[in-house]
Design a protein that fits this description.
Length: 92
């Protein structure tokens, strides 16, 4: 994973091993109340446990690298984009 992805990632508040997940579930849940918790296997974070509200916010924001069709944009944004395209084409 590159450092760009890590910079965009929400801050993990605690890391637990899969053994901790089994043996200290109360501590893991308590940490997850404060923010995303990393679950490690072989000393690498493989999974993240987080509150469903936090997950929903991530999903609502969408993928910043996703391409959108013009008909998916709001009328205001579509107008701005069309004006920018027309201005660029007029330069040629």
């Amino acid at each position: 994973m590159d450092t760009t992805t890590e910079k965009r990632r929400p801050q993990i508040v605690a890391d637990y091993s899969t053994t901790d997940l089994s043996n200290r579930i109360g501590d893991v849940w308590a940490a997850a109340e404060k923010g995303p918790v990393g679950i490690q296997r072989n000393r690498r974070t493989r999974y993240v446990l987080m509150a469903v509200d936090d997950f929903d916010r991530l999903v609502e924001n969408g993928d910043p690298q996703r391409a959108y069709a013009m008909d998916e944009l709001s009328d205001d944004l579509r107008s701005v984009l069309n004006a920018a395209i027309d201005a660029e084409l007029a330069k040629r």
